## 1
Amino acid sequence: MTAAVAVEGLQKRYGDHEAVRGVDFSVAEGEIFALLGPNGAGKTTTLEILEGFRDRDGGRVEVLGRDPGVKADGHWLRGQVGLVLQDIAVEPYLSVRETVARNAGYYPDPRNVDELLDLVGLNEKKGAKVKDLSGGQKRRLDLALGVVGRPRLLFLDEPTTGFDPNARRGAWDVVRNLRDDGTTIVLTTHYMDEAQALADSVVVIAEGRIVASGTPDTLGGRDSAQTRIRFALPDGAALADVPLPVSDVEDGLVTAETTEPTAALHRLTGWALDRGTPLDRLTVEQPTLEDVYLSLTKEYVQQEASSPSSARERKAPAGRGRRPGRSRS
Ligand SMILES: Nc1ncnc2c1ncn2[C@@H]1O[C@H](COP(=O)(O)OP(=O)(O)OP(=O)(O)O)[C@@H](O)[C@H]1O
């Protein structure tokens, strides 16, 4: 598979702060790739370098085969790459349809505006002024503006922040449809269920370094992790009678961990049936992506919480938030 994005040894410093410290990853053409990490990890810096908005201090970067740091390739790249950023500047007094139609005019082969508004769930708001949209509706408009030019590669920066649960699922469908249409997608998100639902591959960065990479199902050894079985100890049963190795008991709730859940459950339920006592509050869980992510990033988050950078208000580099409104012809 060809790489849509290739990053090797990427480095970026702000003064004496090393924000990105030798990051390597690649994004295959046609996949959804998620860049995850705690606040201040270096995700936005990395994306901004890929988008051509920031210079790097070291390493190699290729986006669709071109170096985004080479200004002469900027025009070509802008025609191939779509961006959905936080706080895109749009005309507040234009209608939703006018806004999308105006941006469609910047591209040689834009999507059909009405079909696109339908796709992102803004059909009923076509005539509404942008200033009157809710937060979640504005993000849908951002998404429409990011894809109206049929980009080969789409950067999505926290695409569903502020969405209600139904709108999030709608946005996920849009993103999947785009991928199925052949668009490569690079997204950042703080929602692990979003990464789980969408991403074909993920990279977790913390303090400017990669701490784990893989698929959502295998990240951090998740596929070989222990299954957790929990149940209330039946009335009259002693802990010693439980036919599984117990790892914890809290408030009468017994936890056992196993790498062979089928056999373990068979033993446990057989034991309960023989005794004629139900297993109340029985649950069987594998670690979620969020569990794995939290354990991978725990040490970095503690340091981040006490670092002044976590409180810094990030300013988009000049032009970043305004790009979809600029002419790309
Ligand atoms: N323009 C800047 N000037 C100085 N320091 C910066 C600048 N931009 C980012 N940093 C610092 O670089 C580090 C990485 O920041 P970055 O915005 O890339 O993190 P992030 O992973 O996107 O975080 P978040 O999840 O909070 O958006 C942070 O410590 C941040 O304070």
Note: Residues 14, 17, 19, 37, 39-45, 309, 312, 314 surround adenosine-5'-triphosphate (CB under 6 Å).
## 2
Amino acid sequence: MTQLWPAPVATGAVRATVPLPGSKSITNRALVLAALADGPSELRAPLRSRDTELMASALRSLGATITDGPDGSWRVIPADLRGPAEVDCGLAGTVMRFVPPVAALAVGRISFDGDPQARKRPLGTVLDALRALGADITGSSLPFEVHGTGALPGGVVTIDASASSQFVSGLLLSAPRFEQGVTVRHSGPPVPSQPHIEMTVEMLRDAGVTVDTSRRHQWRVEPGPIRALDSDIEPDLSNATPFLAAAAVTGGSVTVPGWPSRTTQPGDAIREILARMGADVRLDSDGLTVTGPDQLEPVEIDLRAVGELTPTVAALAALASGRSRLRGIAHLRGHETDRLAALEAELNGLGGQVQQTEDGLVIDAVPLTGGAWHSYADHRMATAGAILGLEVPGVVVEDIATTSKTIPDFPGMWTAMLEETA
Ligand SMILES: O=C(O)C1=C[C@@H](OP(=O)(O)O)[C@@H](O)[C@H](O)C1
Ligand SMILES: C=C(OP(=O)(O)O)C(=O)O
């Protein structure tokens, strides 16, 4: 039975320091690069959650050895890639888009499947691109099969990556191991989540790979060795946003230690968003501290580059004053669930006034009432419900456990934050 979680109400201003586990996006890139590298890698402070455990299992099933090191670190020893193997993608975009190119480098038959909702997520572009680069793949969405021969010619491919930046990232991450590397050209409406592509490029370069990004809408990865990694994974800044939001909506103060002064994580954009909504935002040696105002202001903002922050921003907007407009996020219809429809339905279910537009949401902040908040198997829908519940008595979040996709113990962390306040 799905767990019903009465979201705790804040009895006053939330005041806490909240350390966050590692970044999902960095951890899963690091695992892929380490599995393809020229020697054993050490990943310290990786995220250990459903998405990253699925990535580790997928790479293990293809031959890599991934073992526990001290303090939750991971040691990765690459090996010749081979099937047969069965890859469970769960609902992880990074697994379903980053692992097929790795599988195309293996010998044997590798079958992929995932959660029911994962079968609806856009994927055909990656599989078509891999076919164009020489791979033998049957299917165009989950479930599908890769028939690997142990090598991939690679070369030039043009794709429409407007549905997901992960199409580009997935091809680039394995490309040093393609015989001719890869040149990926994008043709179509704008690519979302640009910082995530910059993260991919930066991590490849850090591993000694040559990447040319000098032409607009084009990425060139030269073939060559991937240097083994010895990395400290940054905390997950997108997962930090519900905790920072707790300070913002209650007029409290929350510090996230270890906030990097420079990062490719899109979650860093929360600093500007919260400042625009009237919060005081300070980044110093203690970390990032957000102090909420008496009343949050509405915001008009293009979130295309940082779409995964939308559920948090929508919750903030619903608790602000006046009308907020969130745009540039049509691609969220292909995320864990159709996030625009889900946010519209759930906020309106609490008495809100929210309307979907072609590429976003218009949110009028009105008094909300308690009620059921459905998660749609979406970790960020669940955490958005928790934010609202701080200020709206009687919000009951269905399936809070779905947060384990990217946070091992969200309910425990949320309760600890509120207990520290008391
Ligand atoms: O590469 C990544 O790690 C991610 C890219 C983004 O995907 P989209 O470009 O599909 O939005 C983001 O939303 C997702 O949470 C993680
Ligand atoms: C879109 C997201 O995840 P995924 O990596 O599964 O695409 C997300 O975490 O908001």
Note: The CA atoms of residues 42 and 75 lie 5 Å apart.
## 3
Amino acid sequence: MLFDLHSHVLLLDVFTFTCNRDLFGYLRSWTSSVPSLGLTSSLPGAQPAPNIIEVPATEEDDEDDAATLRGDDEDVHIDDLPPAFPSLNGAQRAGSSKETTSSTIPRILTDSELMPPPPLPGLASRRPGTSSVSSASSSFLLVPSGTSSLTVPLSTLKPPNKKATKKVALAPGHGPLDWANLKKSGKDLRGVDTLSRIPMSVLKQHNKRDDAWSAFNGKVYNITPYLPYHPGGEKELMRVAGRDGSKLFALTHGWVNIDYMLDECLVGFLVPDS
Ligand code: HEM
């Protein structure tokens, strides 16, 4: 929709009723910078301009301004420069102090005007092994209160529970690596020449320390070489000598890979008595 310049001027006159002089001056500078040539429309097919209520100009609108907006004079007015925004006596500047109005340098706040620092943590909330810095950052890192990724876990502060493990002190040269080396050495750990089918009655005969066989998951092993290397001790391991130890083994440490640990001790496969 196009307006002719006259309607344009009337609309702006209506604005002068509702807007203050600063806004009017801004609009005036804007319209004066637009060439007036394109505003007078006589394009084919243009719709007739809508009816606009004409409002008489007030005393505040001097004739000079109206003439400028109508484009009657070609001269550039001295007051074509946009006004200061916000205006020098406007409400936006009214709230600021005199110092900032006269100077654009912001005033530095005094200590009493600044936000107070957060309170220091009380001594009662501190725990051994944690610093105030780590406990303050723990909430940010979502670590449980009183702990930090850098502090020593509280569990290590407790004395070890000696009853928690049933491991025994192995003789020197009988650690897990020593057993692994013995397996690789090529030494005969089976005591038999060939693997065979072993009935339960035969298994029961091998129940001495120097001749101990035990069945685990259908496989029969010579456990005598492993006895001094067993972390749970020889006594525990001898409980299954000459019998099927599958259930006891699973109840004690089902995670231990017996097939790998005793592969060189395999003597045969458990079969039922005929
Ligand atoms: C010949 C088969 C067995 C092998 C190869 C074997 C191997 C092991 C290994 C590797 C460990 C150390 C586990 C760990 O550090 O987590 C261990 C611990 C232990 N084993 Fe055995 N074991 C055997 C049979 C048995 C049997 C039949 C018993 C019980 C009658 C037994 C009782 C124990 C006990 C009490 C521990 C100490 C667990 C602990 O408190 O940490 N083991 N065994």
Note: The chain has a mean pLDDT of 74.
